[in-house]
Design goal:
The chain is an alpha+beta fold. The protein contains seven helices and twelve strands. A seven-stranded mixed beta sheet has the order 1-2-3-7-6-5-4, sandwiched between helices. A five-stranded antiparallel beta sheet has the order 11-10-9-8-12, with no helix packed on it. Strand 9 and strand 10 (241-244) form a beta hairpin. Helix 1 crosses helix 6 (177-198). It is globular and about 55 Å long. The two termini are 32 Å apart.
Length: 267
């Protein structure tokens, strides 16, 4: 997979150095260990790629199921990026946009985004993204962006069957994982460079909202055991979800503060 990815990749610098393992505990843990010992010159934009994970990580401490040889398990490492720590969380949305754009191009079937960064086809999730950061002084020493994309997985655990799908299940075809990974990195490089110009999503907002499945849809906000309902109206330049309530009040919702669901489903 590594050699084929390197052949297909058409970026200027993102992912030009690829570290590959048949199995690792977690590409996030692997990348973080490398970052602690490595330099910016050596590792900025490096990609950590594995065929399988024994301890894949999801958001909020969840496990990311990682069967071998079927999907993409990768982590992108940004060393000493010139990004304020306050703005780094928006990179999760930048990667979500990039995966959705890549999946749409490769499959010909439109992928959407469930805010903030779940990439969805046919109402089910095809991708998980987890961003972590280590700060040194007032700036990030490194940022890792872990990406898991369901490409050729045929079956899911019973508890995930109504929430998860794969590109293969959606298209009926076995897809080249290398192509999906390469396209994701190509879109991310372009989107990341736009992000760096403003340190926010202002140059990506239109593209992101065009894929935002929640936009102008009823949503439930689940927060500390309580639930409120409103209409999602889009995002702010910082990536917050704008939710309008019956009173006319518009609230800015931060990722990580609440869970957002559709009225009757995951999306």
């Amino acid at each position: 997979m590594q050699k084929e990815l390197e052949k297909q990749l058409q970026t200027r610098w993102m992912g030009k150095k690829v570290f590959y393992r048949k199995e690792t505990e977690s590409t996030i843990t692997w990348a973080k260990e490398a970052a602690k010992a490595g330099s910016r010159e050596e590792l900025d934009g490096a990609l950590f790629l594995a065929e399988a994970q024994t301890g894949g990580k999801g958001r909020m401490g969840r496990v990311w199921t990682s069967p071998p040889g079927q999907n993409i398990y990768m982590n992108l490492l940004l060393m000493e990026p010139e990004i304020s720590p306050m703005n780094a969380a928006s990179l999760t949305l930048v990667m979500g946009l990039s995966v959705a754009q890549a999946a749409t191009e490769v499959t010909g079937k439109k992928a959407g985004i469930k805010w903030p960064n779940d990439v969805v086809m046919s109402g089910k999730k095809i991708c998980g993204i987890l961003t972590e950061m280590q700060i040194s002084g007032n700036m990030p020493k490194y940022i890792t962006i872990g990406v898991g994309i369901n490409v050729n997985q045929k079956e899911f655990p019973e508890e995930l069957q109504d929430k998860a799908t794969s590109l293969m299940l959606e298209t009926g075809e076995i897809l080249a994982r290398e192509e999906v990974a390469a396209k994701t990195l190509e879109y991310f490089e372009k989107n990341y460079e736009k992000f760096l110009k403003t340190q926010d999503l202002s140059l990506l907002k239109t593209e992101y909202e065009a894929l935002l499945l929640n936009r102008n849809q009823p949503v439930r906000l689940i927060e500390k055991g309580t639930e409120s309902r409103g209409i999602a109206r889009g995002i702010t330049e910082k990536g917050e979800l704008l939710v309008e309530f019956e009173t006319g009040e518009i609230r800015k919702v931060l990722s990580g503060e609440v869970s957002v669901r559709g009225l009757y489903s995951y999306v």
